[in-house]
Write a structure and sequence with these properties.
The structure holds two protein chains of two kinds. By secondary structure, chain A is an alpha/beta fold. Helices cover 32% and strands 14% of the residues of chain A. Chain A is globular, with a radius of gyration of 15 Å. Chain A starts with 9 loop residues before the first strand and ends in a 38-residue tail after the last helix. Chain B is mostly helical. Chain B has one domain (3-65). Chain B is globular and about 35 Å long. Classes of the chains: A alpha/beta, B mainly alpha. The A-B interface holds A 16-21, 23, 25-27, 29-30, 34-40, 61, 66, 92, 94-95, 113-119, 121 and B 4-5, 8-9, 11-13, 15-20, 23-24, 28, 31-32, 35-36, 39, 42, 72-85.
C-alpha cells in the first residue's frame, strides 16, 4: 500500500514507548513506507530537517512531564523549515484535543485518537502524505496579515508554558 | 480483513491500553475502554477462521474488563531504529 505516486515515503514517529514504536513500524513498513523511530523530543529542529521526513507522527504526551510532545508540535509548526511537514497527532488525550481543536485545525494537524483502528491510521497516513502543502481552512484565519501558522498556540492544560520557537 | 491486519489491530488495542492506563485517570480510561471494546467487537467475526486469534481476542477483552494490564517500560532517550532507505 503506497501513496498515489507509488513511492515509499519517510515517516518520523516520535513516541517514548518502545512497544508503540514497534507497532507503528509494523503498520508503516507494512504500508511500504520507511520509518525512523525516536523515543525523545529533539531540542533542535535541525535534527528533524536533517532526516527529511515526509510526515511526522507524534504523541502529545511525551517525556517525563508529558509536555514535550505538545512543545515539539508547536515548534514544528512555528519554524519555517518544518512548518509545512504534515503532522499526525496520535494520542489518548481526548480532552486536550477537544480543548485545542481550533489550533490543531488551524495548524493542519490531523488527529488520530487512541485506541485507533489500524485502517483509520493507515488512511490518515495516506491522506497526509498526499497533501502537497499544509493549508488551513479560511475560517481559522482571523487576520489577513497573519498566516495560519502564526495562530498563537494555547497554553497546556496545567498552565505551564512549553518552550516556543520564535517565528 | 486479513490475518496480519487483525493481529495489528489486536496489538494496537492492547498495547495502547496498557500504556495509557498508567497515565490517565479513571474517568478518561473508562472512555478509552469503551472505544477499545467497540474495536474489539468489530473483530469478532474477523477472527472466526483463526482459533489462536479468537483466543487472543478473548484475552484482550478479559484484560479490558479486568483492568489487569501489565506494566510497560518506557525506553530511554535514543534513536530506536531506522528503516533501510
Amino acid at each position: 500500500m503506497l501513496n498515489a505516486v507509488n513511492k515509499p515515503q519517510h515517516i518520523l514517529v516520535v513516541n517514548d514507548t518502545e512497544e508503540i514504536l514497534d507497532l507503528f513500524r509494523d503498520i508503516i513498513e507494512g504500508m511500504g513506507h520507511r520509518m525512523t523511530a525516536w523515543s525523545f523530543s529533539p531540542d533542535d529542529l535541525a535534527k528533524v530537517t536533517a532526516i527529511e521526513p515526509d510526515l511526522i507522527i507524534l504523541d502529545l504526551m511525551l517525556g517525563p512531564t508529558e509536555l514535550q510532545g505538545w512543545a515539539l508540535l508547536q515548534k514544528i509548526r512555528m519554524s519555517p523549515p518544518t512548518e509545512d511537514i504534515p503532522v499526525i497527532v496520535c494520542t489518548a488525550a481526548t480532552n486536550w484535543v477537544r480543548e485545542q481543536e481550533g489550533w490543531l485545525a488551524a495548524s493542519a494537524v490531523k488527529v488520530v485518537l487512541k485506541p485507533f483502528k489500524v485502517a483509520h491510521l493507515e488512511h490518515a497516513i495516506e491522506q497526509a502524505l498526499q497533501l502537497p502543502q499544509v493549508t488551513a481552512p479560511e475560517e481559522f484565519v482571523e487576520d489577513d496579515s497573519v498566516s495560519h501558522k502564526a495562530v498563537p498556540a494555547p497554553e497546556p492544560p496545567d498552565g505551564n508554558s512549553p518552550t516556543r520557537t520564535a517565528h | 480483513m486479513d490475518r496480519r491486519l487483525i493481529e495489528l489491530q489486536l496489538r494496537a488495542v492492547t498495547v495502547t491500553y496498557r500504556i495509557e492506563q498508567r497515565r490517565r485517570d479513571s474517568p478518561t480510561m473508562e472512555g478509552f475502554r469503551e472505544r477499545a471494546r467497540s474495536i474489539l467487537l468489530s473483530l469478532e467475526e474477523e477472527v472466526g477462521p483463526y482459533s489462536d486469534l479468537q483466543t487472543a481476542l478473548a484475552d484482550a477483552r478479559r484484560e479490558l474488563d479486568g483492568d489487569d494490564g501489565t506494566s510497560q517500560s518506557r525506553s530511554g532517550e535514543r534513536v530506536i531504529s531506522e528503516s533501510a532507505p
